[in-house]
Design brief:
Oligomer: single chain
Number of strands: 4
Radius of gyration: 48 Å
Shape: elongated
Strand content: 5-15%
Order of helices and strands: HHHHEEEE
Largest sheet: 2 strands, antiparallel
Number of helices: 4
Structural class: mainly alpha
Distance between the termini: 152 Å
Length: 210
């Protein structure tokens, strides 16, 4: 097939300009379509990653909510136990001390105008009656068996509720000091049984002589 060079136009008229513009436009459209296809292919994995991350975040949030609920339940349980703790035994013991030793009468009395002999006589009643209550209903034992005013050693790991350190307390155990008081602990408490309608808040009934 032979081409005639003379047939090729040597001028650039409007027809050729239109053809050139159309070619450029078609080329731009083709390039834009390719870029869109590439963008879609790249975006799909990103969407999948986001979909995987969201459930993980929800699981973490649920675990946090569960932990908070457990803490709240424990607080409510402790508060409930404190609110329902009975003081009947303490009231009963106080009633026995009043009954046997007139202790409340003694403690509530203004002793300013009483002589030392009068206070001493009243104290004997309180002492003897109080000792009777302790001996009858509470079994006590000393925390430390050493003699008072002797040197003792407090080893590491001691119970601070059982041993109270006083004076110049510095450093760490073992501590060396003087036993000022042996301390007491209750081994057993056997208070009298009460009736069904017993009102523990009545420490001592009012007395009316007829």
């Amino acid at each position: 097939m032979n081409f005639d060079i003379n047939v090729i136009p040597d001028t650039f008229d409007m027809l050729h300009a239109g053809l050139a513009a159309s070619s450029v436009l078609l080329l731009a459209i083709a390039v834009s379509r390719k870029s869109k296809v590439i963008e879609k292919v790249v975006e799909k994995p990103v969407e999948k990653i986001v979909e995987v991350e969201k459930p993980v975040e929800k699981i973490v949030e649920v675990e946090k909510v569960v932990e908070v609920e457990k803490v709240v339940e424990r607080i409510v349980e402790v508060e409930s136990k404190l609110a329902t703790a009975t003081t009947d035994s303490a009231m009963q013991l106080l009633s026995l001390l009043q009954q046997e030793a007139r202790m409340i009468d003694f403690l509530k009395e203004d002793l300013t105008d009483f002589s030392d002999d009068e206070v001493g006589a009243a104290a004997r009643v309180v002492h003897s009656g109080g000792k009777k209550v302790i001996d009858d209903y509470i079994q006590l034992s000393a925390i430390r068996n050493e003699q008072e005013e002797t040197r003792v050693t407090i080893e590491e790991g001691f119970n601070p509720q059982s041993i109270r350190l006083t004076g110049n307390v510095t450093g760490s155990a073992p501590f060396h000091g003087t036993l000022v008081h042996k301390g007491w602990k209750a081994d057993s408490v056997t208070l009298p049984k009460t009736s069904e309608h017993y009102d523990a808040s009545i420490i001592a009934p009012a007395e009316v002589e007829l």
